[in-house]
Amino acid sequence: MTIWNLGSINADMVYAVPHLPRPGETLPASDLSRFLGGKGANMSVAAARAGAGVRHIGAVGPDGLWAAKRLAGYGVDTRHVAQAEAPTGHAIIAVESSGENLILLFPGANREIGADHLTRALGEARAGDLLVMQNETNAQVEAARMGRDLGLTVCYAAAPFDAEAVQAVLPYLDFLILNEVEAEQLQQATGLAPAELPVTQVIVTLGSKGARYFDTESGEFADFPALKVEAVDTTGAGDTFTGYVLAGMDRGMPMPQAIDLAMRAAAIMVTRHGTADVIPDLAEVQRARLG
């Protein structure tokens, strides 16, 4: 099977700061690193490093060919990554010593994915494949509708959160993942708690408290506590978790087993500085000794 990811590709500029800046504050950074990033690229790398076959649908600018090459180097199929005229998307990320972060995002080429491009890419998909999207590209509704019509398992990571964007794709979804704050915002917008959404499988991530999984067809739910590690950078941990869950789904794992594996990958991720370039592979996750 294949995971198709309509996803963003960014250059992540990560600045180490003593604390997150306050309004009007000029703050010196002690370090600067550039990583491959974007929620889409992070999820593609995580799923590929977890052993899944991943095809990325996206776009970079003339300045972003390095990003596509790096994606390919991590085992992601990039034949459907187009070159747009707009600059490559990028994020400015400030990370304080506790690991908490602040992110400014410029979408750039991620919002320049044409309908013909999407149609050509998904024309190669097969029933039973997975399709995942995030709210960092255009064409999400078109992709979700096409995925449903093709018999794909349609998945959505609801970030950066926008209630209207989620509601637009909700009728087509089989799987939805969002964090605790996003779940509350979606409930305010729709009047539906996670267990009541018209989506078969829902995961709400709870940060340091772990995650909660809902099977809305059976009415069952399960809590998964987070593993205790010393976090240095939480950037990309949620994307790593999502990519590993998707890879588990693609391999036919029971959802609790996929979530357990994803929790371990995310726990390793927060002990590292960086984004896609430092996502652990499956062998690292399996051999890691975590509490």
UniProtKB/TrEMBL annotation:
Self-association state and partner proteins as the record states: Homodimer.
Name of the encoding gene: rbsK
UniProt-annotated binding residues for substrate: N10, A11, D12, G38, K39, G40, A41, N42, E136, D239
Record-listed K(+) binding positions: D233, T235, M269, R272, G274
Record entry for activity regulation: Activated by a monovalent cation that binds near, but not in, the active site. The most likely occupant of the site in vivo is potassium. Ion binding induces a conformational change that may alter substrate affinity.
Known catalytic reactions: D-ribose + ATP = D-ribose 5-phosphate + ADP + H(+)
Swiss-Prot/TrEMBL keywords: ATP-binding, Carbohydrate metabolism, Cytoplasm, Kinase, Magnesium, Metal-binding, Nucleotide-binding, Potassium, Transferase
Annotated EC: 2.7.1.15
Organism of derivation: Ruegeria sediminis
InterPro entries referenced in this protein's UniProt entry, alphabetically: PfkB_dom, Ribo/fructo_kinase, Ribokinase, Ribokinase-like
The UniProt record lists the keyword Magnesium: yes
Classification via CDD domains: ribokinase (cd01174)
Listed name of the protein: Ribokinase
Cofactor: how bound: Requires a divalent cation, most likely magnesium in vivo, as an electrophilic catalyst to aid phosphoryl group transfer. It is the chelate of the metal and the nucleotide that is the actual substrate.
Residue ranges annotated for the Carbohydrate kinase PfkB domain, each copy included: 6-280
Cofactors required: Mg(2+)
Cell location: Cytoplasm
HAMAP family: Ribokinase (MF_01987)
Residues bound to ATP: N179, T205, L206, G207, S208, K209, G210, G238, D239
